[in-house]
Amino acid sequence: MTELTLYEEAMCCSTGVCGPDPDDELVEVSAALDQLEDAFDDLEVNRANMQHNIDQFLETQRIYDRVQEDGPSILPITVVDDQIIAEGEYLSYDELTAAIDGSATPQEV
């Protein structure tokens, strides 16, 4: 089972459609994650929002340390099977697919 976890800054919801001005980037990320779950049978997708899932940040030492060192501007952090593959940006569907397939080189941290 491959596990993809997206650690995100504090926000009211992860879909990007709440409030008067929808966040197009969050809408695209939500759609990409849904599409990935449909495309890969052995993929588990998790999203940790700093506001709603603070325990997940506190329990994951590497992520906690990165946020402590660089502040919340380091978010989002994308992790595939315990390997940080991106920091400070959302990846596209194609980039996520490549990382899941193991053909992507992890981003330097």
Automatic annotation (TrEMBL):
Annotated keywords: Coiled coil
Coiled-coil stretches noted in the UniProt entry, renumbered to this chain: 26-53
GO biological process, one term: response to arsenic-containing substance
GO molecular function, one term: DNA binding
Domain of life (superkingdom): Archaea
Pfam family, one: ArsD
Protein name in UniProt: Arsenic resistance protein ArsD
Protein's organism: Halorubrum tebenquichense DSM 14210
